[in-house]
Amino acid sequence: MLSLAVLLSVAPRSDAPRAATLGGDAFAEGLQAYDGGMYTEAREHWHTAAMAGHVDAMTSLADLMMRGQGGRLDRASAVVWYRRAARSGDATASLALGEVALGSPDDQIHDTMAAFVWFSISARQGNTWAKERAVLLRRTLSGSEHAMADRIINENTLPKF
Hints:
Elements: H1 4-7, H2 16-21, H3 24-35, H4 39-51, H5 55-67, H6 75-87, H7 91-102, H8 112-124, H9 128-138, H10 143-155
């Protein structure tokens, strides 16, 4: 089970300019493979690019892992890649972590506070959808959860539980 401790164990930071230049060829090859429906090949290319620090590849690889495209479904590894991308300032990865924290009706995962924190981080990075989700979730938090979430967000360093 993924928990607040797992989802909030890294702090967001922006190394995006440097990381964006790394693994660019492999990322582009992955896009081409993905567009052609060759998900296994896309996954391999994006893994190479992600290992080189390419932030978009990290998020794309995590998406494939989360859906089980091009290989086995692997939510735990997907969360690791989303966290790496979020740590590098990727708003889409932060949004995805919020969605993971909310879970689905079939999941045992449901951590509203973690979802609120990740949506809020994504919103600060400019994601409008995340902002809307954060506003809705804010209403569901208790006073102590709200205070803890705001402290985590405002300190810009997520605790390592």
